[in-house]
Amino acid sequence: MRPGLILRLIHINLILIKHGLDDVILATHLFRPLRFLAIFMPWRWFRRHQRPRGERIRLALEDLGPIFVKFGQILSTRRDLLPPDIAEELAGLQDRVPPFDGARARAIVERAYGGPVSEVFDRFDETALASASIAQVHAARLKDGREVVVKVVRPGILRTIEGDLQLLYTIAYLARRYWREGRRLHPVEVVREFDKTIHDELDLMREAANASQLRRNFAGSDLLYVPDVDWPTTRDNVMVMERIHGIPISNIEALRAQGVNLKALAERGVEIFFTQVFRDSFFHADMHPGNVFVDPDRRDNPRYIAVDFGIMGTLNPVDHRYLAENFLAFFNRDYRRVAELHVESGWVPPDTRVDEFEAAIRTVCEPIFERPLGEISFGALLLRLFQTGRRFNMEIQPQLVLLQKTLLAIEGLGRQLYPDLDLWTTAKPYMERWMREQLGVQSVVKNLRRELPKWSEHLPTLPVRLHAALDEITAARERLERQTEELSALRSEMRRSGRRQFGALLGATLVVCAFIVSGLDGYTPTMLAGTPLVSWILGGLGGVMWLSSWPRD
User: Domain ranges in the chain?
Assistant: First the structure.
């Protein structure tokens, strides 16, 4: 292990000690036998009044850096998996990470523009509106009077991220090599996927492009609003967007006070998720409550407002199709089809017993149907599915990790908004409609419309191309026939050559025998009586066979 990684591990342990979380170290498998040594640790002697455990965990994650903050953000959406005090504190990681100095933010913006902020903005507030692990946001006003927000990447963040990623890669390589489940769970591939995701998040030009794409996908929609990007003022580390005003999705009391229909809001959240994943194959993969707001002007017809588009997920056509069919079969409780799809997609080995896999999936999934969201947990469901998958050597699909993370976040939001939401009843009609669109007449018409420009471009040259293709086929057939004839002639020649070689060898053998018999004069065995005659006969036969083996012109 490289010295830098060792220093990072030491730093992590010191942070845990600083915030009174050294029990975490002593609870690990390596140090568990040494827990009795805690009484000899001087820093534990002088601890009197510690902060609450949730606050200590949050502060430690903030000190450890962006990757640990991301982990805390994911956990914060799963209040069903955490004690309330810890979940409440981790929610502060969504938009209340300590900001860096506003003067430094101004300096970063001026360096990006190559001039003073006043040349671009009428007003730039140095006090941050919100601060997260990767960047922070400042309010501003453009010269044309539009109110905007300016997102600025934290200084020096790349070095911290690179160090933590190297640590994750080291752990993943060790897990793959020494852990029995390492090869099945693909830890290195999962870390590589996370590596790509977090580096994409550092590029604000890429985030701006993601926002523009998502805005086009939901243009004119009553489901989701995406702020407009101001491209002339956007750079790699500075992004300028339209400023939005909404109620944070986590502020349930404010939503109720505003009279927002929470049931409709929860159902629309499910529809947004499935629309992004299955209609567009392009989905917001960082939907923790700090990035989601509700339009306060829509009560009975609520609309979401999304921000922070650094992490977006996509699916290739194969995974997209298999995933859609899996969901639909799952909603229909067709566990046989779910098992078959897992085999067809290669997610489980091809020799898997479909009937056994079907029974295992049924055992896990059947108890959660016809129950409201408040009584089930996707976290527990996924855990049981992973345990089942381990029995059947089901491999983790790294390209689906973001989707699983997003689905868990959506469930966490729905659980807070409307615990009585029936996820299956809400999602099933949408999935059925989507499958009809993909496989029905509408899909055929859509594909024809998409391909028509290509066809119209190539149609005028089609007769010439067809004639050329027929000529090529005819020429290829003639070449094949000539090659067949040449191959037959070559086989005949090889057979003749083989016979000539055999004849020459036999003839030469007889001539040699004739000389041997002739040389036995006076010592000839009784059975070879008449040696001169025998030698003449053998020599004559050998000579004739040898001469006949010569090729004829």
Answer: 3-90, 253-439, 462-548
